[in-house]
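Schema walk-through. Below, the input block comes first and the output block second. Nothing else is stored per chain. Lengths vary across the set, and this one has 94 residues.
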Amino acid sequence: MTNVEDSPVGYSMDPKEQLQADKQMRQQQEQMVGIFHSHTATAAYPSPVDVSLAISPDVSYVLVSLKDQRHPELKSYRIDGARITPEDVVVGTG
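--- output ---
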């Protein structure tokens, strides 16, 4: 998705792209299971903005911190209101 804020510190998905992706998923009988984005200067933990924009407790919010670009950090959470629950992440090669 295009970040319509065009900012390294904030993001907003392009509403037209969001609608198109949702329509395509429905047509293919698919369901969104996760939302992924990076934090360029902070830890891989949901920010207050991430929490306020969370759309469903059934979706994984996968965050990659690029604060230390030599050692990116990947974490995943479920967000239910103000409750943030870490999820295990398993990265496989196939």
